[in-house]
Request: fold
Amino acid sequence: MEPLPEPVARAIVQRYARILAAFGTEIGARPLVLPNADFFPDTFTGDAKSLKRLVKRMQVHAGMADIPIRPVLVDESEDAHGHAHSGGCGSGGCAVPRAGTDSPARLTEEGDGYRLAFEPGEVRHPVALTTTVARALAMVFLAETQTPETPIEAPVELSVDLAAVALGFGELLLEGSHVYSKGCGGPSIAKLTALGPAELALACALFVARGGHSARALQKELAPTQREALDEARALLKQNPSIVRQLDEDPARLAAGDFELGTAEAPLLSRWFGKKKRDDDLSLDELEAMLSAAPRPKKAAKKDRETDELSALVDEALRDARADAE
Reply:
């Protein structure tokens, strides 16, 4: 797997830092939740009672046990939004249920709490289920803790993914970002998150390093693609130890883009964009879309020069990359 382009890596660091700068006090010190018996000791049978128990346990892991959330199983003939199903092969193995990016939409306010709807197919697929629950809880967290001074960063889907990582669910999202499955149509890859494995791996590596969690325990639970992405992310942080220190001591500084990313002997920008041929996870159009969402310093005149220099650097890198691709 190719490393993340430097501007995208910067954007992930900035956005994750912004989550901590805005909501770090409410998030607190969270455990690294892994899909094993230590964190999920209950037997899951796929019924409403098991679903309720799973959601409540994940709320406890996220420090959100006091928020009323009512998980429900929707009718077999409808999806989580009340739309009729069109059918399918009926084997249950043709595809991974489509969850992830829809999870915030399936939340509805209900009195002083929330209703969280699940399709039967999601309940039968452990990765789809835990990814959906993790992202839904992240959405609830952001909705409950945002203020006029600290609104949810747009695009909301990216903030949901990063908030889920900060709440301790990075491994669950990493698994949901690249799900290999076989069905009657042949092998397929499903993506149940807004961010891909490389971006989520970087956020996960930041969470692990900042919290002093076991990277080895995390790696043991990951599929090969996600494990490789985590290795790349950890190598990046090893080259830039000040990033983790600043994330703990002054996340607002990282959120403003006031940091260096790379090494003196081999700058990451030249290493990533100096190749004539590569197979990046993101297309250039997707990269530009990601960069447009990267946090910028707000109402800070002293940062205008730094922001302009960063923008010029990114623009130059993109022009060079497009020239190489042509």
In short: The chain has one domain: 6-29+36-325.
